[in-house]
Amino acid sequence: MSRIVYVNGEYLPEEEALVSIFDRGFLFADGVYEVTSVLDGKLVDFDGHAKRLERSLGELEMDQPLTRDDLLEIHRELVKRNNVVEGMVYLQITRGAADRDFAFPEGATPTVVLFTQEAPLIEKPAAKTGLKVVSIPDLRWGRRDIKTVQLLYPSMGKMAAKKAGADDAWMVQDEFVTEGTSNNAWIVVGNAIVTRHLGTEILHGITRAAVLRMAREAQMTVEERPFSLAEAKAADEAFITSASAFVTPVVEIDGQPVGRGVPGPVAQRLREIYIDEMRAAAV
Ligand code: PMP
Fold first, then answer.
1. What is the pLDDT of residues 85-108, one digit of tens each?
2. Which helix (H) or strand (E) holds 122?
3. Is 132 among the residues known to form the active site?
C-alpha cells in the first residue's frame, strides 16, 4: 500500500514525491536526519530529536527551515494520514539543490523529506533473545556527533556482521568501543552501568540520554567513560540503545558469550522502565 509522505511543504503519495538529481544530499551526503519512534500512535521523545536536529543543522551551517512546532505538526499529520500505531517517522533535511560544487551554495533552499515506516518495536524477538555483535574498526569520519546521512560505513558494518552470522557490529577505535552501527553501546560491570562519554567520536543518542537519566533516577550507578573491547567481552552484561531498538540486550561479542550469554537483568529492567516512561510521555 502506498504511503503519504511529506516533501517540501506537500503531502503526496510516495510515487509522486520527487527530489532533484542536483540535491546535495544525493551528491555529497550533505544532509542530516532524525528517526522518531511511534508508540500507540504517539511520538516518543520528540523534543530530544528536535533539539538534536537543530544542533546538527547548526554544525553544518544550515538554516533551520521549519520551526519545532511546524515539525511536530508534520510528524503528527503523517502518523495520522498513514494510521501508524507502532513504527517510526524518518526526517531528512539536506542543503538543497544547486550546481555541483564542493563549496556550500548560497541561497539554496533546503530539501525537507519525511516519511513513516511501520514496524513492531515492543514485541521484537531481539529483546528476548539478545543480539550477537562482532567488532570492526571504526573507520568513519571524525564528526560522528553530527547526525548526517553518510551512513555507508555503518551499512558495510551491518553487512559484515550478517556475513559473520551476527546481528550487528560494534565499532572500535584504539581498542575502545565507540558505538554500534546505528546505536549506542553499553556494558554492565559489577554494579556499574558504563557507556562512552559524549564527544565527536559518537552520536549523542537521544535514547542514551533518556536511559542515563532513568538509570540515575532509579539509583543505579552510571559511568560515562570509554570502555575497551576486552572489558566489554569480560562484562556481566552488554546492551545497546537507539530510538527504534529502545534498550536491547547484547549476548555475544565476537563469538564469545557476554556474562551467561543470555539477556541480563539490568538491560531488561532498563528496557521496561524506558518503555513505560516513554509511553506515558509520548506526544
Ligand atoms: N549511534 C549511531 C551511530 C546511530 O546511528 C544511532 C541511531 N541513529 C544511535 C547511536 C542512537 O541514537 P538515538 O538513540 O538518538 O536513536
1. 999 999 999 999 999 999 999 999
2. none
3. no
